[in-house]
Amino acid sequence: MTSPILVEVQVGENRISVDVDGEPFSIVFPKGFFEKYPRPAKKILAENLAFASTIHLPFLMGRNVVKYQMSKPSAKDLIEEGFKLSLPATAFLKSQKTSELLRRFSEFQYLFEGGDASEYILSQEDLADAAVLLFSFGKDSLLTYALCREVGVKPILVYVREPLTVRENYFKEKLSKRFFEEFEEEVLFIDNGLGALREPDKSLKERGWYGWELQLTQIGLMLLPIAYAEKAKYIFFGNEKSCDEGFFDEEGFWCNPVYEQSSEWIFKFREVVKTLGLEKLSVGSLVESLHDLAIIRILHNRYPEIAKYQMSCGENLFELKGSRWCGNCSKCARMYIFFLANDIDPRKLDVPTDMLESKYRELFCLFNVGRGNYGYDSSGLGRDEQLLAFLMAYRNGYEGDLMELFKKTYLEEAEKREKELKKKFFGIHHAKTMPEELKDKIFKIFREELKDLQ
User: Fold this and answer.
1) DSSP states of 192-211 as a string?
2) Given this model, what pLDDT does residue 453 score?
3) What is the pLDDT of residue 206?
């Protein structure tokens, strides 16, 4: 019988430390925020973060029991549910069976030596019209920032440094310095040392997936002390419309490649936040009603001074070291054709490669369903959006090997379906998690920018 995985949690002045089998890992908050969080709430937050960050370890370590020297987390059942609902995507990406991962998960034991979950209600008086934003310089977070500024909500920008994305962190820090110089807007940094517990990439082609299932949930928990210290009404994620899409895998399990970005999980995460005592904090997304093509159109057309900071790439396969884009992954490919569709020159955004060259064919899910670097691209769910994007880029006069392939293979289909595709991908869809008091202002902006495209 193998020994259990031992997990111990400690709370410091500006950090949460988690020992796994005696090895320490820490989450370090920017100064002046965690210190203001009440001590009983720190303990509850630490317990939930420790559990959410280690729930996957039995898969990685081959041991079925995790023994925690802490109380049972207040949101244990919700965290387990989120992890379970994310496993079909892990199975898909690892070319394994969902049923096998679920069977193994059912055999894991999580034991808590500190007794029942603690309860504590935080006082939230005089909340400000402010929002903590998970800020990555991606299109969604940049547009969310711009929308907040326009509708009178103070944005508080937070980036979480992950230890397995060193190159991405480097470029995000450079962008943050430039952003502060131009807008006097500080980006707060949280160092998530617990991210080292995720499965790393084994090679340039084989990505690690265990431990990434609940990344945004973990980050959402890390944002709570900052929201509390700033008396913010809102936490906004950049979850857009396609985050609600999925497919049935070969065994009949529903698979959403980005489940914890879905509106369904946002509602469940709100319940998680309530168990931690922040009952008045609203969690949602301002871009939930839009697809990627529409987000890029609005961001670059209405807010070009903000859009120029966009970086939607997290790869380490950089062909040109000086660029914030690798120009060599399915995320870059997707953004590249969306830029051309909206008549935006990718070179002005520092994209280093011409991704209409034939050697990048496999990175576009329109041409190669199931071969992207990321879950959404591998799933093929973005196929129709790329179909429309290639049609628009073709009409904008862009040329290249892949444009010739598109004309030969898909142009006829794209032209027949153009009206349907524009209605979907430039439409303004139902917003489930957007705060009601902001909808009129936000939708007015969307209508102004998309009126000629639907």
Assistant:
1) EGGGGGSPPPSSSS----TT
2) 87
3) 61
Contact 82, 260 (CB under 8 A): yes
- What percent of the chain is helix, strand and coil (3-state, nearest 5)? 50, 15, 40
- Residue 318 reports pLDDT greater than 70: no
Give the confidence band of 338 by pLDDT, cuts at 50, 70, 90. Answer: very high
Residue showing tokens 């153009």? 418
Its pTM stands at 0.96
Yes or no: say if 419 and 286 are a contact pair by the CB < 8 Å rule. no
CA 367, CA 103: separation in Å to the nearest integer?
35
Domain extent listing, the chain: 5-112
Q: Give the span between the Cα atoms of 267 and 272, in whole angstroms.
A: 9
Beta strands in 113-170 (DSSP E): 128-134, 154-161
The span from the CA of 283 to the CA of 432, in Å, is: 11
**302 DSSP 8-state letter:** H
* Contact criterion met (CB below 8 Å) for 8 and 18: yes
Residues 88 and 91: their CA atoms lie apart, in Å, by 5
**Total number of residues shown for the chain:** 454
State the DSSP code for 349.
G
Helix axes 263-275, 215-230, angle to 10 degrees: 50
Average pLDDT estimate for 250-268:
97
Q: Are 227 and 278 in contact (CB under 8 A)?
A: yes
| Residue 111, strand partner residues | 67
CB atoms within 10 A of CB 43: 18
Which residues have CB under 8 Å from 436's CB, separation 6+? none
What is the rounded CA–CA span in Å between residue 65 and residue 58? 7
State the Cα–Cα distance between residues 449 and 147, nearest whole angstrom: 13
Distance from C-alpha of 16 to C-alpha of 85, rounded to nearest angstrom = 27
Chain centroid to CA 214: how far? 10
Q: What is the pLDDT of residue 235?
A: 98
Q: What pLDDT is attached to residue 377?
A: 77
DSSP-derived secondary structure for 365-425: TTTSTT--SSHHHHHTTTHHHHHHHHHHHHHTT--SHHHHHHHHHTHHHHHHTHHHHHHHH
Q: Which amino acid is at 102?
A: L
